[in-house]
């Protein structure tokens, strides 16, 4: 009897322990074959299913096109007021389009709307040509960027996702990577992906004509926390979606690939996002407090300032009490010259229930040269004069 009760108690304790430290992934049931859910600010994976499986991406390819577009804007290579001319080739794109005529000119700002809202293949190619000179050159930049971001299961053949080539592929994980890069570095993208409906004006030889852009992202009307991002579908890719949402300071990205129909992709994305918001809790230390300088030995000055490298963020999906997080400093009592500005002086470590959950480097604010004979002489003279 004792052994039976002991075993029961141990099983109960194990169950309670697992419930307290593990995400309840059993609550996530999706119909799509490949999905991933991440928290945007940390990049932490909350849930995934076949997330590295290579699949045809359809129009979510345009996430990379938008990323390179905003990157080009940020470096000054192009601007939102640029006049973008639609080539014969761009105008000939099939599939989802906004019916740009050959020779038609629109601002880059309008072209971005055509891509982000209406998924215009013609607009995507026009922008690619404007930035890189040709779609081929732009696609080379896309693959280069994918490699830089560590997107190991990605290769692009075009800038819009029309290709049905087996050599045009990505994975749910890689889509989450480029979605995160786009939305965290260039949050102004949400000014476009949040648009439900907006009109543009076609200016052609035939005159002016209004054309209404309608978002392909139905989640904008179905899920109140939605902020973007991009849908896609072809007969090969089936139905894909990279969905972004923000609630109570938490930003999530849910990627769905290969859904059997358009309703399922939105349902699965909403299931993932709802699950994420139910389990996510973020600890943030902005690290804006001032730090005491460190004593310097053998330097031309006697102390040097230190600063945090940046803020600290920790994502918890286990239900832990984050008010119990402690910050401890790992710093020497003094440092030896010479000192390089920006070098690491120590670390601020974060502990939860005695276990480290992360750290932030502490950096020198200035460089300090090693003291020479005359530096020491000046110090001695100065001491006696005082």
Structural commentary:
With 386 residues, the protein is of the alpha+beta class. It has helices at residues 2-21, 62-74, 88-91, 108-116, 121-132, 135-148, 172-185, 190-193, 219-222, 262-279, 373-385, and strands spanning 34-39, 45-49, 83-85, 105-107, 197-204, 207-214, 226-234, 238-247, 250-259, 281-285, 294-297, 303-304, 306-308, 312-316, 326-330, 334-336, 344-352, 355-364. It has a five-stranded antiparallel sheet with strand order 2-1-9-8-7, with helices on both faces. The chain has a four-stranded antiparallel sheet with strand order 13-18-17-15, with no helix packed on it. Strands 12-11-16 form a three-stranded mixed sheet, with no helix packed on it. The longest helix is centred in the first third of the chain and has 20 residues, at 2-21. The N and C termini lie far apart (84 Å). The relative contact order is 0.13. Residues 1-26 have low confidence and may be disordered.
The helix-and-strand class reads: alpha+beta
Segments where pLDDT lies below 50 for 5+ residues? 1-26
What is the H-and-E element order?
Answer: HEEHEHEHHHHHEEHEEEHEEEEEEEEEH
| Total count of helical runs of at least 4 residues | 11
The helix content, as a percent range, equals: 25-40%
> Biggest β-sheet, characterized?
5 strands, antiparallel
For the biggest β-sheet, the strand order reads: 2-1-9-8-7
Radius of gyration, CA atoms, in whole angstroms: 27 Å
State the separation between the terminal residues, measured CA to CA: 84 Å
If you average the pLDDT, what whole number results? 90
Basic shape: globular
Number-wise, the strands total 18
* Proportion in β-strands: 25-35%
């Amino acid at each position: 009897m004792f052994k039976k009760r002991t075993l029961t108690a141990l099983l109960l304790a194990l169950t309670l322990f697992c419930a307290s430290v593990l995400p309840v992934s059993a609550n996530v049931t999706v119909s799509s074959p490949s999905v991933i859910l991440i928290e945007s600010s940390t990049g932490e994976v909350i849930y995934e299913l076949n997330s590295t499986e290579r699949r045809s991406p359809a129009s979510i390819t345009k996430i990379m096109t938008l990323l390179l577009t905003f990157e080009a804007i940020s470096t000054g290579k192009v601007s939102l007021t640029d006049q973008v001319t639609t080539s014969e080739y761009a105008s000939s794109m099939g599939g989802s389009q906004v019916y740009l005529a050959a020779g038609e000119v629109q601002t880059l700002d309008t072209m971005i709307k055509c891509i982000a809202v209406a998924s215009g293949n013609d607009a995507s190619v026009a922008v690619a040509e404007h930035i890189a000179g040709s779609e081929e050159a732009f696609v080379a930049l896309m693959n280069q960027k994918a490699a830089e971001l560590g997107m190991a299961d990605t290769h692009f053949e075009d800038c819009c996702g029309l290709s049905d080539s087996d050599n045009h592929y990505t994975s749910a994980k890689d889509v989450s990577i480029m979605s995160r890069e786009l939305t965290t570095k260039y949050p102004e993208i949400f000014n476009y992906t949040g648009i439900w409906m907006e009109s543009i004006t076609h200016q052609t030889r035939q005159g002016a004509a209004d054309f209404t852009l309608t978002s392909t992202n139905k989640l904008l009307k179905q899920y109140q926390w939605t902020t973007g991002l991009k849908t896609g579908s072809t007969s090969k890719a089936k139905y894909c979606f990279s969905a972004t949402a923000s609630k109570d300071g938490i930003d999530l990205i849910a990627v769905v690939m290969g859904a059997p129909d358009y309703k399922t992709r939105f349902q699965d994305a909403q299931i993932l996002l709802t699950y994420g918001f139910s389990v996510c809790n973020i600890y943030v230390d902005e690290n804006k407090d001032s730090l005491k300088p460190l004593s310097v030995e053998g330097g031309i000055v006697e102390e040097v300032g230190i600063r945090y490298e940046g803020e600290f963020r920790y994502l918890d999906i286990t239900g832990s009490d984050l008010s119990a997080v402690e910050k401890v400093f790992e710093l020497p009592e003094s440092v030896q010259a010479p000192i390089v500005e920006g070098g690491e002086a120590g670390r601020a470590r974060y502990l939860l229930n005695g276990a480290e959950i992360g750290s932030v480097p502490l950096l020198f604010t200035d460089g300090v040269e090693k003291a020479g004979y005359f530096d020491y002489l000046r110090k001695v003279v100065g001491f006696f004069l005082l």
